[in-house]
């Protein structure tokens, strides 16, 4: 039987993914990216003044938020305020998903006489969709929630805390709040709901068959689940749902933080407690198959706690030597996470 181009391309993608996975621990990279997203977004929520070196370090890490609206504005492609940037940030992923649907329909039509080609097209599109969902899940909901956060200044006027050039409760702001409310159901609610639906669909096989990393080999008729394996493969079979828990972790420490007693020490204190709770939940559930991933997740959790604690105690009034020590400890901890990935890859 002649191999279709789509099927050949699908096999190449699968082979490339396997080679990368054998060298680079992708789950570990995801854990580090999530920790960096939480830390950088939290500093924006509280408008924290960290020690200079650490502040510059976080500004470099901010690239992991993949904020397309901000990138378009800064690059002068568009000249926009908060509303424009947030519109681009929420619409662009939807445009990509729409393009995915179109290309999948075309691929499906071209390979209608080749089941293998259709499966390859489906696998490729699902893999890309899952990757996009992971990338935008922290940054886009964070931007959405900021639409609702206003601050009253000494003038008696309410301004949008994310952009003080915009006043709240005007016609435009109310329209943007309605839009943001709709986007909540698309991103903060919709993505984990999609994950939960997919995981519930295959939970019987995950729990019954056992080891998640090879159950597709033992149940060949479920090979169509391969593109979504990143949702469950890093976790033990009876913890197949942990990706949904992780979505709650990311939202609680980023987007929802904006609503917790803003501009107060209590806001940072609550976030420190929440970060510690999620570390404890991870230790109790012990979801990861790989011990390296478990340790890396724990390190990332405590780095998050420590960064939030610094926001609470406000070290900006300390002398330069104290600030340098704080900065070096935190940067060393971040570097430690990268070192764990390197060690894991070597071993």
From TrEMBL:
What protein does this entry describe?
Probable extracellular nuclease (ISS)
* Source taxon at top rank: Eukaryota
| Membrane-spanning residues | 20-39, 85-106, 126-145, 176-198, 268-289, 295-313, 325-346
Q: Which UniProt keywords apply?
A: Membrane, Transmembrane, Transmembrane helix
